[in-house]
Amino acid sequence: MIQIFVLITFVLFGQTKSINFKEIKRIVNNNSYEKLFDRFIANNTTLSLDDYIIIYYGQTYKANYKPTARHDLVRVLNSYLINSKNSIDFYKVLHYTKKILK
């Protein structure tokens, strides 16, 4: 999902930026990354292109980063969506997706 937001941002604004991985790692290792990620989860509309870059690349510096692992709730969410085609509770979907992103 984060990749989609970054891609859309690049496409819409037509900007390319150099990425300072050392700075991103520094940000991830202090409390400001969590605050930034919380703003992303809350769908904060004031996030900048730099913020999205930090969120996207910063995930790789998190201690719990496991790119090939799947969250258990992904299976639960998929099952719910398949079995509730005619009566999807979008608040329930939102609840699952927020837990998956955390």
Shape: elongated
Structural domain count: 2
Q: How large is the radius of gyration?
A: 16 Å
Helix content percent band: 55-70%
N-to-C CA distance: 13 Å
Indicate the low-confidence ranges by residue numbers.
Answer: none
* Total DSSP E strands: 0
Query: What's the mean pLDDT score?
Result: 83
- Fraction of residues in β-strands: under 5%
Element-level helix/strand string: HHHHHH
- What can be said about the biggest beta sheet? none
List keywords for this structure.
single chain, 102 residues, 63% helix, mainly alpha
Provide a quick synopsis of the model.
By secondary structure, this protein is mostly helical. The chain has six helices and no strands.
Structural features, described:
The protein has 102 residues and is mainly alpha-helical. The chain folds into two domains: 2-61, no CATH class; 72-101. It contains six helices and no strands. It has helices spanning 2-13, 21-28, 32-41, 49-58, 72-83, 90-101. α1 (2-13) runs antiparallel to α4, α3 (32-41) crosses α4 (49-58) and α5 packs antiparallel against α6. The protein is elongated. The mean pLDDT is 83.
